[in-house]
Amino acid sequence: MRTLRPFLLSAALVALALNQGACFGEGSYRQGAGEEPDSGTCVASSDNDAVRLALAPACEGCHVNGNKPIFASLAAFESGLVYNERYVKRGDPENSLLIQMLKGTAPGSYPQMPPGQPYDQLVANGRVTMTIAQVEQWIRDLKAAPAQLETPSPAEFRVRRLNAEEMVVSLMDQLGLTLEDFVSTSNPDWRNRAYVVNWNKFFVWPGDWHPGISGEYVSDPRSIERFEALGGGNSLLYRKKDAAFGPSAAQALVQMSQAWCGRAVDKQNNKAVLRFVTLADTSTKNPDAVQKNLRNLYLRMLGQPPDDAELKALYEQVYLPLEAQNTRLAWVGTCAALIRHPLWITY
Ligand code: HEC
Fold first, then answer.
1. I need a labelling partner for 106 at 20 to 30 A (CA). Which of 46, 195, 200, 227 fits?
2. What is the pTM of this model?
3. Where are the domains of the chain?
């Protein structure tokens, strides 16, 4: 079960948590003042964890995700590397592929890890602190694998950000929007031709999806640029998707959430955001309807009902200040805030 932290704080935390460096995985402990994400340093929870954290600066860049995510967590490191006989022969560093890889003498297609860079050089320039001799000593002293290693652990569930495709598709659906809200439908065959993007709609769309974006007007290519800013890839340009949630993705999502929530609120007969209220209802005139709609919108966007404290924070910190200007702004702002919520961004 997740515990929900105060609304606005948690948004900041998730951005940081998704961008963490070496202090990742369920097994590592964090030193320092409680929840504050930037005050701590990594503290190893065991000898294996110490080796993992020590090697991480040289390896994690390529092995947090991908084919061999052996640096994704302590459990991944132990099951994928430490207790995998192919790489580590307990008590026998000379015949351990891991050591040969660090020394650049491993047989096969990948004689050296990291590829093309002697590990000793990384020690010499201070990028890593553990020497090959120390890694060898750890292998000599390594104890047998604990019995429960093979058991899947629910605690190892890893949160990841939604990728850009998921964001675009699920947001359209949640907000009751369709392609017709963004692209020109004046040609009867528009679905099968490159889309002509309507001006000022803040369309966001993958560059490699059929039938493509026309490029006829200034606004068109922006749809793809925004998608890439959101962290999306483009297989036609060999552009990889971004697994982290960095500043450009955050900025793109802020703009997209505001623009798309605005379209959803303004769209005739669209119940996605305004299910139990109209723009004529206010917190003084019809407080129950406002609360009911807030609760419903939270559930719709985040897939779980809010607890009372969270609902109160959303109402007092987001909805009410904007309602002082007008109800449209209040619902657009509340809708957009929910899209920036950690529960929305992560999967
Ligand atoms: C620049 C990227 C990169 C870095 C940094 C890197 N690796 Fe690799 N590693 C690869 C690639 C590419 C492969 C082979 C393809 C695959 O399995 O993903 C690989 C494969 C491996 C394998 C499996 C080899 C096999 O033949 O089964 C191990 C073990 C490994 N790396 C360990 C490490 C360790 C330990 C470090 C840090 C000291 C490290 N890697 C750093 C890119 C990298």
1. 46
2. 0.54
3. 20-156, 164-345
